[in-house]
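Notes from the pairing session

We agreed to fold both candidates in a single pass and log them together. This is the raw record for the first candidate, unedited. Please don't reformat it; downstream parsing expects exactly this layout.

Candidate A
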Amino acid sequence: PAYLSPLPDDAGAVKDSLAHPFGSFPLSEEARGARKVAIVTSDITRPVPNRIILPLVIEELERAGVPERNIIICIGTGTHRLQTMEELDMMLGSDIVSRFRIVQNDSRNPDSFVEVGRASSGYDAFLNREFMGCDLKVLTGFVEPHFFAGFSGGAKAVMPGMASLDTVMRNHGARNIDDPRSTWGVIDGNPLRAEIEGIARMAGKLFIVNVTLNRDKRITGVFSGSLEEAYPRACEFERKQAMVQ
């Protein structure tokens, strides 16, 4: 990847992005009237700058009138293991861990999922029950080339992030993985990616907050708003930074 200098004011850039998103109203307006909100972040295997992003997202939700007790922080583990309390403190900060309910996706616990619809491949998709109980889902993450989903980030916070083991394994099955369009940098026409996004849309109202990072894990770009408009912009920004023919 070409080295990009970090944004001079990363917190300011996140705040501005939440107020001027792509393809949606500002987060404080999107959240108005929401009874319960889920903020999804990645597990410890992904260097999402939670300590910068989460407090600013929470601030906007509270400005919208969502009480603190009605905000949950979801750890989109996918099929990975759960995090320890020490890891949660390191990832999120002890203040957030102490103030908010943390829901870690346990993909192997069938009782924690609810059926949300039928995936494009024909199987029933299941997502985390507590996550689905929220009116608005704020999906955080970072975008980089992904070897079969095109790019990371976006809808991947929902699937595989908050999905059951069977749902993930069916999406990641041989038919999708073997398709030549399921590869680095390909979003349009990628059947695996299309299925991920289809399942994510079954989750209801979404608002993404995605960043791009340099090799020092510093923020180089912030892309908030809808999956349809904010996410493609993040992918194109990262494509120019990280990929060559």
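Candidate B (folded immediately after A)
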Amino acid sequence: GVNLTYTSDMAEALGGARYVVSSGGAARKAGMTREDLLKGNAAIAAQFGKDLRTYCPDVRHVVVIFNPADITGLITLLYSGLEPSQVTTLAGLDSTRLRSELAKHFRISPDRVEGCRTYGGHGEQMAVFASTATVDGKPLAKLIGTPELTGGQWDDIRQRVIQGGKRIIELRGRSSFQSPAYLSICMIAAAMGGKPFEYPAGVFVHNDEFKHILMAMETTITKEGVAYKNVQGTAAEHKKLTESYEHLCKLRDEVISMGILPPVEEWGRLNPHLK
């Protein structure tokens, strides 16, 4: 029943929209990291945010896909004037890759691997958690270091998850598209009041520890928008999460130095919801 159309007119594309998914940035190519796309896609995100404000001020939820998604999502949020609960970015792809890798290693159905989580940045500085996951009902953390999953094998799995996007580009010459498309529509469906989205999403975070940033957290998406809670994990996992946050802060500050974003203390003028 979908009515699929296309246009190069932004007013026509966004006019009256209630739910928006954007993959409108430049694609990542072989040899590039997500962060290599920063300058060009940051400018695209700024214009996208302005277009949302202009053409669909009553939009209810926006999902940003194009990389580096944590930063492009943050820029979109600021320029759109939307509430933080209304803008999310695709981060669940990393968690699904972890689930897939564990299922392949243990030679079981992915349905028997639960609680797979990566947090922080959607990039090569992501924090891959073991403490949240179970494999066939067994805590993953208790399997690591045993003959079933040696420490070296776990390190290899982590690296394959972190390098997943890079590997796809090496194999097929372009970024993945089916999984991001599917997951983003699952996120929108949850925002419309459908089945809850069960993986982390990128969300604007400002609390006692992480400030003025957008990154993957433990989230819930409902028709009320996205909400997050603090991540629980081991001390080592939390250290990785902090390092991922610090990496994102450097990217954010780089965009500020480019003049695409104003200094943090002026964000409230651009978007009153971020005071």
